[in-house]
Amino acid sequence: MLASNAVKLPVELFSTRIPRYLSTIRIWETLYGLPFCYMGMVLAADGWPGWSIFIWITVALSGVRTLGMAANRFIHRKEDVANPRTANRHLPQGLLKPWEMLGLMLVGTGAFFFAASQLNNLAFALAPVAAAYVVFYSFTKYYTWACHFFLGWALGISPAAAWIAVNGRLDPEAVLLSAVVALWAGGFDIIYGCADLDFDRQYGVNSYPKRFGISTALWTSRVMHLTAGCALVALGIWLDLSFYFFIGVAIAVTLLALENSLVKADDLSKLRSPMFQYNSTISLVLFVFTVLAVAL
Question: pLDDT tens, 66-117?
Fold first, then answer.
């Protein structure tokens, strides 16, 4: 009987538990965040930085993203039960336990700190600041309608972090690239916040759409995405990148425009369309064409 249970535990871990962990921390969001991080890495190195830096940057981003997403799930576990949009997640359904989210937070933090220590002194020194921030932003919706901008910067720090990992310093070009990601992610979070407007009003949760209305929220998102596109053009000119980079920017801006055109103040039905589900294409396109611009 004991032997049977000993075999059953690892089988359950790999067949059910780990897939649930990967799903609850939205591993695919890490995958669409990685290309932006790699953009910072390639631009900082002006090419390939070497396998060691590449591997530790990947581990670091995966670790801090695991920390941030697990913390978000743990902190908002009560709201997720009450919100129809999130009630089918693993924690509200009882498929995972709060202590498991705490465990994922510890694993993510450990992986992040260790990876940062393998890069350089500045990366390791700033690691606690980054870790604290990605946990902190989950609390902001309790206090301010600007929570979407805090989330944008939580994702936006990754290109600058990769730049630091390569060069051991933070250059202004890296800050501009991080601003692009912050505008991109924050703009999308405002759009997604429109779907939770009724819930936010009922439960007293703060959001930009709740404070200013859906119409203003959607226009703000469009302005943020337009500004992100302009900032990308400015970055390409600043770094004197080849035309390949600007082709990538043109494709990315077109995709952003298409996504923004799908949602209207009186019709949010297309918010869950495949276009939004797969907007990771934007970051991947930008990364591929950035590599081409640097390599060719």
Answer: 898 889 888 988 888 887 777 777 777 877 888 888 998 999 999 999 999 9
Instruction: Report the distance separating Cα 262 and Cα 257, nearest Å.
Output: 9
Domain chopping of the chain, boundaries = 2-295
**Residue located via tokens 């495949």:** 274
Q: Indicate the SS3 state at residue 35.
A: helix
How many C-beta neighbours within 10 Å does residue 230 have? 14
Smallest CA-to-CA distance from 37 within 135, 102, 115 is with 115
Decide: 191 and 218 in contact? Cβ < 8 Å: yes
CATH class for the domain made up of 2-295: mainly alpha
Both tokens assigned to 181: 């990601």
Residue 267 — φ and ψ, nearest 5°? Answer: -155, 100
pTM over 0.90: no
